[in-house]
Amino acid sequence: MTYSTELETVPGRQSEPLTGVVVESPEAALSPLAQAAVDAGTSASTQRAYAHDWGRFEEWCAVNGRTPLPASETTLIEHVTYLAKVIIPNFDPEVKLTGNEVRGLSPRSIKRAMAAIASQHAENGLPMPSRKKALAVIKGYEEELSLAKDPRAKKQRAQAVTREGLRTIHDSTDPTQPSALRDRALVLLGFVLRARISELVAIDIGDIENTDRGLLVSVYRRKIRKHTEKAIPREYAPEMIDAVLAWIAALAAAGRTAGPLFPRIHKDGQIGYQTATKGRIPSGDPTGRLSTDGARRVIRRAFLRAGIPGDFTGHSLCRGFATEARFAGFDKIDITRGGDWHPESAAVDGYIEDADRWIYNVLKGIGF
Questions:
Q1: Domain contains 365
Q2: Which of 99, 119, 153 is the last residue of a domain?
Q3: What is the pLDDT of residues 258-278, one digit of tens each?
Q4: What CATH code is carried by the domain that includes residue 138?
């Protein structure tokens, strides 16, 4: 352990030294165990995004002869300008600032890149350079894109599902096809639970309790890091409940009464299969649990099978839940409580905005 001795003087005295002050130097790095504990508190998607952004920054610095850590204010400004004006979809670190019009990233992506750089500085105990001028670059870039009506100027939003769309999926499902039953149950349950993809695929058969009043579903909410029990009253959602129970019955008929609620299904109808590599080594979750990527494909396929146009994602279920609840007359407090969002969630504000533009339109009573 390293110590340093600093001599201090008392105001009013001429360089009269006090006793040495022993200061412990900071540790060079966290232990692997401690670092793993820190990482566990950050979502995997955020870690991946930051790692990607930081890797690109390091490559750019290497090509341009700049120091990534600690970065200077000038380096940060130049990199932000590069991301806005020069970068191309397939990153090429050899691309130099030329002034030619080349597609840049969205302002949102550039801000995330700045956050990744700030995160690396914080983790290494280094001060982050001033971001004032770099943010000015982004502000100007946002205006430039807005005036050009460039799609990058708008925040990308998932297409919200609607009650009519869900009804179409329910009614068009072929009950003789296991994959169709699973896909329908996944979409409808994802909607009523307002569940993220990762939360949805983590649900087990044993997490569903069928009561006289309806279904009681145990869900681990990754955002708030707690288990919640969500009630789905039969009085309000009878057909949604029947769709889930029909899928559970199909699982039981296949001999699966425990394990993941949403397993993989082979094209030949085999439920919970494991894929195999060329070496015939089984891969994927050993229980047959559907992956998050697989669940995303399920959602897209369900809407495509029902003949509903659009680019639907797992986020479409969350957005649709909040929007439809708003149209049904619920206020933000009810919606956040029902969807396990934070009461002050900014995301919910964006979701209910789709409904509010029609419900609280100022033309009410003055239009003709």
A1: no
A2: 153
A3: 989 999 887 777 777 655 555
A4: 1.10.150
